From TrEMBL:
The keyword Transferase does not apply. InterPro entries: DIOX_N, IPNS-like_FE2OG_OXY, IPNS-like_sf, Oxoglu/Fe-dep_dioxygenase_dom, Plant_2OG-oxidoreductases. One of its GO terms (molecular function) is metal ion binding. Coiled coil: none annotated. This is Fe2OG dioxygenase domain-containing protein. Residues 198-298 form the Fe2OG dioxygenase domain. It comes from Gossypium darwinii. Keywords: Iron, Metal-binding, Oxidoreductase. It comes from the Eukaryota. Belongs to the iron/ascorbate-dependent oxidoreductase family.
């Protein structure tokens, strides 16, 4: 059982200041960003309508992946009722049940990112000094050999069935998206998925309680996702920010949309043509917030490198190949901060 204090408990205590371990260094603090959130609201993260003709979908995806590393998808085929029901069930788990019941599903403190209910993702990192203002539940969902619904909450009663159904829907959508992303680069539809191989999927429901000092804290520190592609749904509170041209912009929740985040391995596979999305979460003082992220990673034994069709004499490889096991280990031992783990693989192309 994880020993860290749950952030929700701190919030419910009615404290006026946050403990020192949650205070970000000055360079990382959101500061005035949350004071006038509407001015920095980002209504321009691209939205791609998947019901449109492919002739318009492919260039829209290509532009979004090159310029943003993120885009919303609408008319994506995932039932709206499933999205709403899962958000409701996850919020209920965090908000409506006694802490003693939730702690029965606590993470193992001896393993980073172990399945279960936690507050401290990088439990094994010696470099971690500042904690996120967040509680979460991490589910191991794919391959099916990793899926063990008995390790997920049994309350509310529909929770496990909803999570399993959502996992399957996300896999189908990711396969469709990666095919479109491949085709948008002139590659065969299966190219990126073939490079990733079998998906290792985790679904993380994150709960951000109200914070007395949102100017000093982050719900989730700046990072790019480690795997191939992430699908995210938010509630209507909002708090996700993306880094665009050196500015942090708040991503407005788009009703019934799913946000797509390009992750590190896809930047490597596409030889830098598609950019990973650096993002973070800010806190607020009045409302709890929920988001659900579905990560799709390669297996640890897969070696990732730029695909040969995107490498030539005029376009040399930008990244060295890497065994995903080592990339994963580096991410957890160094802790995420922006794209620093990905940047370590950059090759010197000036020679």
């Amino acid at each position: 059982m994880e020993g860290a204090v749950r952030v929700q408990i701190l919030s419910q205590m009615g404290i006026s200041e946050v403990p020192s371990q949650y205070i970000q260094p000055p360079k990382n603090r959101p500061g005035s960003v949350t004071e006038n959130i509407a001015d920095l609201s980002c209504k321009h993260v691209p939205a791609v309508d998947l019901s449109s003709e492919k002739e318009s979908v492919l260039p829209a995806i290509r532009e979004a992946c090159r310029d943003w590393g993120a885009f919303h998808v609408i008319n994506h085929g995932v039932p709206t009722k499933l999205l709403d029901d899962l958000r409701r069930a996850c919020f209920s788990f965090f908000n409506d049940f006694p802490m003693e019941d939730k702690l029965k599903y606590a993470c193992n403190p001896n393993f980073a990112a172990s399945e279960g209910y936690g507050s401290r993702l990088l439990v094994s990192s010696e470099n971690e000094t500042v904690l996120d203002w967040r509680d979460y539940f991490d589910h191991h969902t794919l391959p099916l050999s990793r899926r063990n619904p008995s390790a997920w909450p049994h309350f509310p009663p529909e929770y496990r069935e909803l999570m399993a159904n959502y996992s399957d829907e996300m896999k189908a959508l990711v396969q469709r998206l990666l095919a479109l992303m491949s085709e948008s680069l002139g590659l065969k539809a299966s190219c990126i998925e073939d490079a990733v191989r079998e998906f290792y999927q985790n679904i993380t429901a994150s709960y951000y309680p109200p914070c007395p000092r949102p100017d000093l804290t982050l719900g989730l520190q700046s990072h790019s996702d480690i795997g191939a592609i992430t699908l995210l749904i938010q509630d209507n509170v909002g708090g996700l920010q993306v880094l665009k041209d050196g500015e942090w912009l708040l991503v407005d929740p788009l009703p019934n949309a799913i946000l797509v985040l390009v992750a590190d391995q896809t930047e490597i596979i596409t030889n830098g043509q598609y950019k990973t999305c650096v993002h973070r979460a800010v806190t607020n003082a009045s409302k709890a917030r929920l988001s659900i992220a579905t990560f799709h990673d390669p297996a640890k034994t897969v070696r990732i490198s730029p695909v040969s069709d995107l490498v030539s004499k005029s376009s040399p490889p930008l990244y060295s190949s890497v065994l995903y096991r080592y990339y994963l280990s580096s991410w957890y031992s160094n802790a995420p901060e922006g794209k620093r783990n990905l940047d370590k693989l950059l090759l010197d192309t000036s020679k």
